[in-house]
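Comment thread on ticket #2218

A.B. wrote:
> Attaching the input chain for the structure job we discussed in standup.
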Amino acid sequence: MGQAKTKINFDSDWSYDPAPQATDFIKLQERYGLYIDGKFKPSENGRSFHTINPATEEKLAEVSEASEKDVNRAVRSAKEAYEKVWSKISPKERGKYVYRIARLIQERAREFAVIETMDGGKPIRESRDIDIPLAAAHFFYYAGWADKLDYAFPGRKTKPLGVAGQIIPWNFPLLMAAWKIAPAIATGNTVVLKPAETTPLTALKLAEVIQEADLPPGVVNIITGAGETGSHLVNHPKVNKIAFTGSTEVGKIIQKSLAGTGKSYTLELGGKAANIIFEDAAIDQAVEGIINGIFFNQGHVCCAGSRLFVQESIADELLRKLQDRMATLIVGDPLDKNSDIGAINSKDQLEKIKFFEKIGVKEGGSIYQPDCTLPKKGFWYPPTLFTDVSQSHRVVQEEIFGPVLAIQTFRTVDEVIQKANNTPYGLSGGVWTEKGSKYFKVTKAIRAGVIWANTFNKFDPASPFGGYKESGVGREGGISGLSAYVELV
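C.D. wrote:
> Ran it. Output below, let me know if you need it in another format.
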């Protein structure tokens, strides 16, 4: 005799309970000075600005604004440290300092993750599981290379360049600082770093770590400010190398100002990556890759897969599954461990994204946004798709730097290669197929610095990163990241 079956009624409006990350253990100063010559110092003119939490619009801290005199102080400190200490210390000892910084970042990982999320708006899961571990990994990686440069460049001797001026963006503040500082000091250079004005806090906390590691004063200086501060650093006559990550527009200005100066430079600029899905791809896996490619860090990623090319035969199915998956994304408090998409980094960036939304609709694109409730306070934008767009649409050609994906279809391999290359950028890309021969044919033909196969947004300290065309000059990461900071003799 069979058992009676019980019918279960499921609530159609299931939702996660809040899972907020605690913040009571972090330590933030009310006001931060400039980190010069191993100490925090006020700016010469006393000027400052405040940094806010983009999810709440609440002030986090006052931060000193470096003037031209402050830039001079920082460069002078770096120059003296280079000539008197850092260029004379043994490579093995340099490696010990870099390794010590890596260990201290690990020890304070929770604090760094929370501050990164509060200052930048990205979900705590991303800060905790990606940004901070990768930042520590870069210091570990380059600590190992410090006394092995003869193996990195067989048959050649290396010489540090001197003082490196470094300017980093607001989308990955601590990670970008690690990308630049670690190889620079491991190879014997000294540094003046300027973080972005909207996200300076983890760079200033890194200064605390550098103090704790007893790095000789002046080896790393961290000065805060806006574009004017960065301009003073770029044009300083005693800076030997400029490393910049940011917009293509600013990168062009820097390149022009450096012409004829003899300074070395690396520029990691904008992108408009093509994410290509062939009909033989694992569709469910590809959908997850698309989500990660464009909605990771609210789309505030230079290598984001912001152009999606889908083979025509699977376009309807993939679009349906993509929209279903987008409907499950949680947009909300970045400190909530359930949140998939956090706050837009600033009011200005939010306005830029909305500007492109209007343009996309005006030019005939069809817009899709899942039904989600956005918080009333803070800077928020839902995950967005544009279909019915062509190569000439601005949402296809221009970098939006937000959670906006432009979708087009294709029929043949040659067609998608031509479309993928039809952009002024050349930073990254993705290819989804089960056939290795197809993958190698496509990646060989696409002019981009980094291309992922059946995945997206995977990074490793040993892997070089950089682009072609208007996406920049030079490479960071791996041995290429070392060569950018040495002169081969």
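A.B. wrote:
> Thanks. Noting for the ticket: The two ends are 88 Å apart (CA to CA).
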